[in-house]
Batch of 4 targets.
Target 1
Amino acid sequence: MKKFPLNFLWGAATSAHQVEGQNIHNDWWLAEQNLALKEASGSACRHYELYAQDFAIAKELGHNCHRFSIEWSRIEPQEGEFDASQIEHYRKVIFELKSRGIEPVVTLHHFTNPAWFSQKGGWTKSNLRKYFLRFVDKIVKEFAAQVKFWITINEPLIYSSHSYLLGVWPPKECSLFKTAKVTFNMAGAHIKAYRIIHKIYQEKSLEKPMVSIAANLQAFEICQPTLKNKLALYLRHKLYNLYFIEKLLRKKSLDFIGINYYGRNLADVRSWKIRSLLLDTCSYNHHPLRKNSLGWDIYPQGLCKLLMSLKRYNLPIMITENGICTEDDDLRWDYIREHLEQIHQAMERGVEVLGYIYWSLIDNFEWDKGFSPRFGLVQVDYQNQKRTIRESAKKLARVCQSGEI
């Protein structure tokens, strides 16, 4: 029996564009209408209307926290025009969580941007960060009294790489220079947002908030012990897992480290070019592991290794996302249980972990992959929006309620 602390946070996550539906003012919606993506988000899970029902399920499942995002393009659909009714909507969302004893963990940027912001150049232009910071200032002033945990930006390196290096997300560009620029601008925006959030809490005489990013970390391993692979391993861990976190730590702008973890990246480098060193993976199924429905390697022990590598920073850590898309619900439970065991092992070795947030509460729109990947603890029938609690969710509920696995 493995016991977790009494104050441990247990929950699941969503993001606005993936679940709300009809986010008509952002850049993803625009790309979807232009048929630039496989599927359009459309009504998604209608969570914008059904959030109270979804939070009732979360409460039934023993969750005491919930991570969600506030859609910037709803708040500011046109430049400088703020929609008071949308601010009130998110006030009700937070109230629904708090009234059920569920701690809100609020994300301020989860991949989508207002269309007007993107059309100006978005994150590629340093002088446009002021717009995001204005949004942060407005939202935090509205909700500071109800929210303790803030995630400024979700997976900044996934955003910059998928949008500007790999070119699979809007605006579908392939530029190493722009990738670096966007990464730099997001880091700068977080640092300033961190200061803004803390200043607001100080001015309102509120208890200090807990502010972080949600960094996507991978367990990098090598296929064969070649010199190219060893260099790739060093570079990937340093640049992908640690660069952003260390940059923010140097500026003293993290109160905890939020990490999203899904699995292994098996390096098998085919040339000395930088793109190969950073991106090439084994395509021969060497060292095979179980996989999710998108073909990602399931590697629970990698999470413990990563947590141990972060221990030296002396900050608490929150698992802000960890989950699996699969049609095999037994595999979903195995995935959750094995990752919780690895988290517990790291905690026994001195790592302070604040909580575990599964991705995701409900099935949703998985970006360029569309609706087919099923990550949810709760199944969604997209024809009638019926929610069905999966067995894996019930098993996790017993852990949430007892604090034991």
Target 2
Amino acid sequence: MQLARVLGSVVATIKHESLTGVRLLLIQPQDENGVHDGDPIVAADALQAGVGDLIEWTTGREAALTLPDTYSPVDTAVVSIVDHAWSDKRYLG
């Protein structure tokens, strides 16, 4: 499971027609202790995650499978919104 925190949304003046109605989010990957792990990345979001939400994300072909049009040209997408997460008895949610 790859976790990240939603930082905000990305506005695209032009995007592929298969992404109509799909939001693009700026997410900050986190390690299992809730510490930033790398640079922020853009992810497609068909689940309507909000700023501050803890999410699970994926890359590759599986990313496109999360969207209404499974042939969308995306490489990263939100898979789920995490309600609660613990790591070594530390609450991440």
Target 3
Amino acid sequence: MISLAETKVGTIKHYYDHIGVGVLEVSKTVKVGDKIHLKGKVTDFTQEVSSMQSEHKDIDSAKAKEIVGLKTDQQVEEKDEVFKVG
């Protein structure tokens, strides 16, 4: 099996469990539709970016140094790392 390369795109700074949204500090551009891998002490899953928000507005992409809300399929924790797959 061929493993796809992963590139770190950010770190989770906070998680709002009541809405399933992680606050992502972006280090490299990430877009809606990208496949991402969320990994931490107890976190380890892959999902597609389905929606992101900045200042309560939907956005299609986020660049380095931006702080965005990222809808997650599972719970994430502070300091979890986010990688783009492929």
Target 4
Amino acid sequence: MSEQQIIGSIRAQVDGRTVHIGRLIVHPEHAGQGIGQQLLQTIEDKFKNHRLELFTEHRSEKNVYLYKKLGYLECRRKIISDELTLVYLEKFV
């Protein structure tokens, strides 16, 4: 019997025509293999004709780069503290 483990996860919550995407995670040993992109694509395919919104912290340059590469545009920022700003991005599918 082969060992199975979860290597990625994503959560989405629907609010009218907006889908809030949260908790996109990929196990560090599997980062950079396109798993995060596949998870996002799954959400995009399921929620056609919706506005998708997600956020990440401003210091997560790799995340911001990935989201922009996939067509997400920054729509706002929320300052949490002197050290933390959340960057919100959106995409219409």
